[in-house]
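Title: Request for sanity check on ABC transporter permease prediction

Description:
We are preparing a figure and want to confirm that the structure record we downloaded matches what your pipeline produces today. Could someone re-run it with the sequence below and paste the raw structure tokens into this thread? We only need the token string, no images.
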Amino acid sequence: MTVLKTSMRNFFAHKGRMALSAIAVLLSVAFVCGTLVFTDTMNTTFDNLFKATSSDVTVTAKGSSDTGETTSRTGKPPVMPASVLGEIRTAQGVKAAEGTVFSTSVTVVDADKDKLSPSSGAPTIVGSWNGNDARTMKITSGTAPKGPGQVMVDADTADKHHLRLGDDIGMINVLGTHHARVSGIATFTVTNPGAAIFYLDTKTAQQNLVGRTGVYTNVNVTAAKGVTDEQLKKNVTAALGRGYKVQTAKEVAKANQKNVESILNVMKYAMLGFAGIAFLVGIFLIINTFSMLVAQRTREIGLMRAIGSSRSQVNRSVLVEALLLGVIGSVLGVGAGVGIAVGLMKLMGTMGMHLSTDDLTVAWTTPTVGLLLGVIVTVLAAYLPARRAGKVSPMAALRDAGAPADARAGLVRALIGLVLTGAGVASLYAAATADKAKSGSGMLGLGVVLTLIGFVVIGPLLAGGLVRVLGAVILRIFGPVGRMAERNALRNPRRTGATGAALMIGLALVACLSVVGSSMVASATDQLDKTVGTDFIIGPDNPQNGLIAPQAVKAIKGTPGLTRVTEYRPALADFTTPDGQTLRDTDITAADPTYATDLRKKTVAGNLKDAYLPDSMSVHEKFAKAHGIHLGSKITVAFKDGATAHLTVRAITSSDEVIDQGAKYTSLATLEKYVPADQMPLDALVFATAKDGQQAAAYKALKAALHDGHPELTVRDQTDYKQALKDQIGQLLNMIYGLLALAIIVAILGVVNTLALSVVERTREIGLMRAIGLSRRQLRRMIRLESVVIAVFGALLGLGLGMGWGATAQKLLALEGLKVLEIPWPTIIAVFIGSAFVGLFAALIPAFRAGRMNVLNAIATD
């Protein structure tokens, strides 16, 4: 009880000094809990949606996916004859069955040719209005579509794009463009996670999505009373045979949820990883806080020991304070985490993914995980200071200051840090010189961990040297105030090292990712310059779902000013290689023979142009080595939805290049020979080359030719393509930097707390300096300069370490073809300068408080 009372008294006596540490715990716990609540809510939203939209049993055509996705490489959805509807209705246990047609291979535009697709990455779906959808949607304006000139749109899409009844909409797919006017607007009665949905009547949907009537993509089956979904599935399967895919509502929902979870898990674990970094940074803040509090209470602890308190009691007293800090910070963090989750939901809403707070899901595990993490991390971080407190002897009560530092412990620490750093550097060197990326990546990970821990351990030693250098470069120009700031930073190298290390971690990751991102862009740009021999690359805005319709290819070929146009069609086939292995659903790219000119791909054997001879192909080097393939080898290629060919290998391409890495090529003529016209995959890309001197005119003509009829396609010259690549990587890095900002914020709190406690520790000293003539302005400048030098010290460590990691990672990327190392000096310099401003910002409050001290009271402080 005495220990508890002492801990409570000390905790509340220093509540102001504990506040920043509590905020660090709060932020870290909040990010963890916010991530868990957000992803759980997303799962709940999709679960409810899939349960509500799935019929008891769904029948789809052979070749359709488990998730009900209706895209295919032909641009048309897989279909089944309408006669299956009658067969299904005769099956025992069927109450009702309804055929529908849907497709996601459609681009929808308004009258101004602006796309009406979601910005969240959710699909655009065009299909027939049916009873199953009527269960989850309510027509709130107008009427359902009743003919070829009418279309109904979901309310969220209508609101986002300001659509009204009577507005013209164009639906573009492989069959052409179908125009209709908005006849109705339907509102979801469940949460719509962002899909844009357009409804036609069944006959119009068949004609414009498939090209003929009398077919369906799905049949929704309702069970009679008392019949389970599993029994209904068996009955329907028995009636139809094995030529169709039959799934229960539970199976469809599970397949859809699995697809969604694969995306959500990436987001979830990435965000939790950044929360872990914030926790790591917070550990330094908590260690510094308790170390300084213990040092400031040396006399008090010594007196406690003198009157009979044992080491374990003193130790427990400090740990109880940490426990209180962890509990308070974690409880507040759990509540803040729910707020963060709601904020993320609102943010997703601005991107088009509508999430309702009605689905807000706070599982019991979320606060449990948050509390356990916060408390355990806080108590563990306070263990070393608590142990140090327990070692204070009763004689310390007779001293004015704390016990002298243990020089032997400092030497041991330095040696351990040097060993760890040396081992880390050796691991990084092994990674940089590795022959294979897979083995090198393991050494890279080990090197990152060891060098990071090594720099943390060796921090006090580095602080002693680097702060002196920084003092000579930065602080000496400020005269005596600068020298005092330097001495203050050097007074406790362990504290300076720990404070700088907190900032080091976040900045090291920023520097590493900047180097990797810049190197990837520079390498890809270099390869584009060396290998791409065409002027223009034409493709869909969304390569994952988009394909190029034949009429668009015709429009491209009819554009004036072009000397050649090359089609590029990815196909699927089963490969049987010379070593007897059969590889299912393997990619093979069919292209015009001019592609060998458009892409100057390096070969290790043969000539790529020969791969476009009849019944010929190429493979890449790694594939050839893995399967004993050489020039003249025969590969049996069973094309999907086509015949089987025996193709001769005429070229083996290098596997070192990034563009089309790992591709296997054949000619369009060969593909057309073995795949029926109605199953022919569409072009994914089209390459166009202008006549000499007519590049600008051809670029303008191509854009004009595709603007009205095919706004779903984008024309890029090489400059556009490079910029698009740079923008994609830039967006990813900006998102990562945003997440790392949490760790940097916690590190800034650490600098603030260190300075604040340092000011308290030096109260008497500050009073004496003020008494002998130091002005308030000089005092504040001294504290600001001390803060700046600590922040710059951490930045130097972080940026140097991060650039080393990034350079090593680029060596591994070079094994995959990304051979250019580029250091983004503008970013590195901006971060370095920004760290100085961070130091200035962190010192504002401590400097202000120091300047307000009463001189006489400060001198009288014990």
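Thanks, this matches our download. The two ends are 29 Å apart (CA to CA).
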